[in-house]
Amino acid sequence: MYGGSGSLFLNTRLEGFQKHTEPFSVGDLAPEKTFVHVLDDYSLDILMSARDTISDFVSYLTKREILLRGQCRILATGEEQLLACYLVNLDGNKEHNFVFPAPVGTVFNGILLTEGHWEDFQNSPQRIEQLKQDEVSYAWDELIEKFSYYALRGEQDFVTAGGFKDAERIFRFMAREPRVKRRYFAKSLLEMIYTTPINVQNLRVIPPLRASDPYYVFLLLPAIYAKTYDEYRDIRRRLLEDCCLVTKLVYPDAKDIIGIATETDPQLVNRSEDSLYIDAREWDAQMESETKKIQMELGILTRPKKHHELIREFPDPGIPSANMKNPRNKPCPCGSGKKFKHCCLNK
Prior knowledge:
The protein is an alpha/beta fold and 347 residues long. It has two domains: 9-123, no CATH class; 130-346, no CATH class. It has helices spanning 41-50, 54-68, 79-88, 117-123, 125-134, 138-152, 164-175, 179-195, 229-250, 285-298, and strands at residues 9-15, 25-28, 73-76, 110-113, 202-206, 215-220, 256-262, 273-279. The longest helix has 22 residues, at 229-250. It is elongated and about 75 Å long.
């Protein structure tokens, strides 16, 4: 078991119960057993504030285990010092990891992490800019909560035959996205809402960065396309399904497709959202033929445009970020005087 905090000294030389006699120190209590992370309130609060998605959190714990049960002995004045080293370094796969640069041929027997690493990280311009740009990403979290809220209460406008299990698959995909990708998805969706004319339909497909990730399909449909609200929701839901099927046609490698649809008007008081999941592995010649007809009839993705935007987890403050109108902490465009996150975004 390993632990760490601002008051505990992490020392991997301490192995077994008999050696744990040093005050304010923690180590490996049972190295022959399954690895268990032990974190006190201070450490856990810092860790979960910096790695606040399940993917980011688990990735850190996985690599922490490898480090602390490796051959190199680690001495750290607190968990936050270890976390800072993890966050500022990338490995050969461009993933955060515990990388300690050294001259070629040098082998470390031990590494000491003293005070100051976490403070330097927190005060760095890149970290400050990251926290600023991450604000919009929490619109993705709020969307997950909104979908989950109505699903758990059984108050969804429409439910497929699988019921809550079908909805849960969507929530799981959305919830496993790391913070930096949530920032990109939220910016993309909100940008569509605030730049699309209220009488214009808009569609955007976001391909995955990894083969195991889903394709996301964002659809905006004006409410003017139907005479009644119920009719509008039915039209929008069916169109969203068609758009997801055509996405498989345009992107044959797609395996999992998540569709999200809403209205176009950014000043809408009572906004609604639809979500849809398609397992694109279940695809045959007949489905392809029928989807081609749908694509031609509705003109879906006949000339798809590619959107490219470089998203840096730790942005350079000297590089202007892409224009994002009305992020969650800015005044809501409806004129209420409230912040966007407390007004139309959350309705």
